[in-house]
Amino acid sequence: MAIAFGVDIGGSGIKGAPVDLETGELTAERIKYETPQPSTPRAVAKVVAQLLADFGDEAAGIPIGITIPSVVARGVTITAANIDKKWINYPAADTLSSAVGRPVTLVNDADAAGLAETHYGAARDKMGLVIVTTLGTGIGTALIYDGILIPNSELGHMEIDGFEAEKRAAASVRTNEDLSWAAYTKRLQRLFETFEALFTPDLLVVGGGVSRNADKYLPSLKLKTPIVPAELRNDAGIVGAALYAHQRQSL
Fold first, then answer.
1. pLDDT at 196
2. 222-228, long-range: CB within 8 Å, 24+ apart, which pairs?
3. E strands of 91-193, at which residues?
4. Is 48 exposed, middle or buried (0-12, 13-18, 19+ CB in 10 A)?
5. pLDDT confidence of residue 181
6. Which whole-number Å values give the CA distances from 33 to 14, 51, 71, in the listed order?
7. For domain 122-231, which CATH number applies: 3.30.420.40, 3.30.70.270, 3.50.50.60, 3.40.640.10?
8. N or C: which end of the chain has fewer CB within 10 A?
């Protein structure tokens, strides 16, 4: 049984657990800590080290994958979404590796969720181009072609009708503007039909908290592409991070 450890760093919480890579299931109950405030790299790294220490031998000798809400290039965090701005252009993988005392693999949080859904969830065994969209405070996206991740797509920052996409269609916007589901669905229609026009995907997967309410908007969307709710929910980041670390180690 192949096992890897996944850590999911978010703006409010840091959670992790070992993952069975054959099934995508956690092999132990996940542990979660609050994200320190301010969420500087060294403060976050200290929490990640404590989380791994809590698992003791269960986390020993296996690959470690860590998600972060940032564009990640060769272990450097280029941007910072919902975390401290000190992460911008920061050698994050080096700092986290030093904190835990072993190498780690860093991956964008939406990319991790996309990998998890592709290998174990709503897009399992789907060939062609899959776009996984996480609707939350912002909009995260993952592009996966024949099971291979194309990292750092960041389609939530596309301009649609003169607006940044996530400023109109993120789940937080629906809440903040008190939009009805019908009004919010119109915004999702523009988002996903734009994805269709530009990428001709074979499948769209909708993740984030609003995936629990998929029945309120998915049936009303008029798209050529099949669109389905995500399945892994809160474990997607952990599972995807673990899988990504395993994949990178195997190269």
1. 98
2. 222/189, 222/193, 223/189, 223/192, 223/193, 223/196, 224/196, 225/192, 225/195, 225/196, 225/201, 226/202, 227/192, 227/203, 228/122, 228/123, 228/203, 228/204
3. 105-108, 129-135, 139-145, 148-150, 159-160, 163-164
4. buried
5. 98
6. 5, 8, 23
7. 3.30.420.40
8. C
Which pLDDT does position 82 carry in this prediction? 85
Q: Could you tell me if 232 and 120 are in contact, meaning their C-beta atoms sit under 8 angstroms apart?
A: yes
pLDDT at 3: 97
User: Within the chain, which residues score under 70 in pLDDT?
Assistant: none
pLDDT at residue 93 in the model: 98
Q: What is the pLDDT of residue 209?
A: 85
Residue 176: predicted pLDDT: 97
Q: How far apart are CA 137 and CA 49, in angstroms?
A: 26
Fold of 3-109: Nucleotidyltransferase; domain 5 (3.30.420)
Q: Domain extents for the chain?
A: 3-109, 122-231
Q: Distance of CA 71 to CAs 39, 111, 215, Å?
A: 17, 10, 31
DSSP annotation string for 232-251: SGGGHHHHHHHHHHHHHHH-
Token pair of 199 as six digits: 């990428």
Same fold, 3-109 and 122-231: yes
